[in-house]
Amino acid sequence: MNRLNGELPKVGIRATIDGRRRGVRESLETQAMDMAKIVGKFIEDNLRYPSGEPVQCYIFEETIGRVPESARCEEAFKKNNVGVSLTVTPCWCYGTETIDTTPNIPKGIWGFNGTERPGAVYLAAAGAAHGQIGDPVFSIYGKDVQDSNDKTIPEDVKIKILNFIEAGLALALMKGKSYLSIGNVSMGIAGSIVNSDFFSDYLGMRNEYVDMVELKRRIDEKIYDEEEFEKALKWTKENCKEGEDCNNIEVQKTLEEKNKDWETVVKMTLIMRDLMIGNENLKKKGFLEEAEGHNAIVAGFQGQRQWTDYMPNGDFSEAILNSSFDWNGIREAFILATENDSLNGVAMLFGHLLTGRAQIFSDVRTFWSPEAIKRVTGKTLSGKGENGLIHLINSGSSSLDGTGEQMKDGKRLMKKFWEITPEEVTKCLNSTKWCEADLGYFRGGGFSSQFLTKGEMPITMTRINLIKRLGPVLQIAEGYAIDIPNDVHSILDRRTNFTWPSTWFAPILTGEGAFTDVHSVMDTWGANHGAISYGHVGDKFITLASMLRIPVAMHNVSDNRIFRPKVWSSFGTLDKESADYRACENFGPIYGKLKR
């Protein structure tokens, strides 16, 4: 169920038509409206919101041939909470009179490729109009000519429609929601300097701030659901097994101290969730204000060091909230960034909204060349790891879905939560140990999830960076979470903090630019963190980035998978990366010009 305030945005579908009466328009009414109905059913049958509900479409009841009908449609879209607009047409229409000019929502047009009527001519004219008024549109045109009575959607058109709608809904779902900063800047990490201009102008989001002392207050004053706490603690004791304590024996915590820490981290988890989305049960205890939450679609927890120097760290809370399950069962993952890295949190949010799946948060920690692996382990890797690996590892926000224990057709994957079985939840939990925190890093203790991502899962690593006078840029690297021999993993892992979750990442190389080799990927990455999504979904990120006017600084997605607004070609066709920068700068952030 939708756990945030506000209705879920609908997909608005509008059928445009040649406005000439006395035979022309009348002959096209049924065909045009049938296109709208067919595409609406296709979308509703194939897409769900990240919260699990089927995507809803609103089809404007009239065909649109002139400005008055366009105006009536715009008003109807507002009343029906339309967040993304798709126009369909089988014919020529009056361009500027029929296009959707509703501000700040993504727009696409599917022009039917048929020879009886010039749908392609309208598509080109409407695209030119959108470019001229500064409201880019996604043009969808099938590669093969269809007969006029053909009511199917070609496969290439289906791909573009789904890509456009998924990205458009991601944009619409973010609008008006909050990023909740629990704490402030962690250890000087720039991503945890939460930039309100970026959130408001590019994402349409607001920023909420809570000092970490609020966690302590709620713990001390029992501002949480005590009945749920008992349930959560029981579940945790039964399912979350302690792993190795890496601390010297003389400084290790006692069993009593560890048990107390377990109680604290479970309470922290409940409280962080309540801070994000509220909790009606708190009203029964008289905490009306605290019951409301902050309507946060994403949050970050500072932790280090003002909290972790004397209280248990947030690793358990971050890992469980980011997973697709907890003591209440299988549910939509939350998005919670460790070290309050808001920019990595946004990349995680993009991945979640685009795929409906839980996300992994990692340090982009170490490049291991084939030569270094051979020197340290005596082994030579083959297959996808033969060119070297990037070790993705960090305490905190890696979802337990990242263990790779969910399966379909004999392959490992990270499922959408409504596809996960209870047996897979058990496997994810059994593959995870909870190690006592390294008391050198975390003086207050806590428990870090320890697991190894099982391959060979396709994954995509992304990151948002803010650059002075440039603004935000997005980086994308598709690749694989690969299996390496256990003895090799053990040797390499124990050279760093082995109590944390590990993913061995082999990016797909193109032999050019940032993807010349694995070292180049590591060397070009713009920050210390990366957000990891299941699947090769870089194309989805690129489509969303173009809607938000965020240029893509590096990617290894093939040209035939990239879908941006048609007007992007006006900024250059030979060097598409540079053209993307120019287009994003020209049109500016979708919700207003960033103050620089």
TrEMBL record:
UniProt subcellular location: Cytoplasm
Gene Ontology terms describing biological process: D-arabinose catabolic process; L-fucose catabolic process
Domain L-fucose isomerase C-terminal: 392-555
Domain of life: Bacteria
Pathway this chain belongs to: Carbohydrate degradation; L-fucose degradation; L-lactaldehyde and glycerone phosphate from L-fucose: step 1/3
Principal place of residence: cytoplasm
Cofactor: Mn(2+)
Top EC category: isomerase
GO molecular function: arabinose isomerase activity; L-fucose isomerase activity; manganese ion binding
This protein's UniProt keywords: Carbohydrate metabolism, Cytoplasm, Fucose metabolism, Isomerase, Manganese, Metal-binding
Domain L-fucose isomerase N-terminal-2: 177-356
Task performed by this protein: Converts the aldose L-fucose into the corresponding ketose L-fuculose.
Protein name stated in the entry: L-fucose isomerase
Organism: Cetobacterium ceti
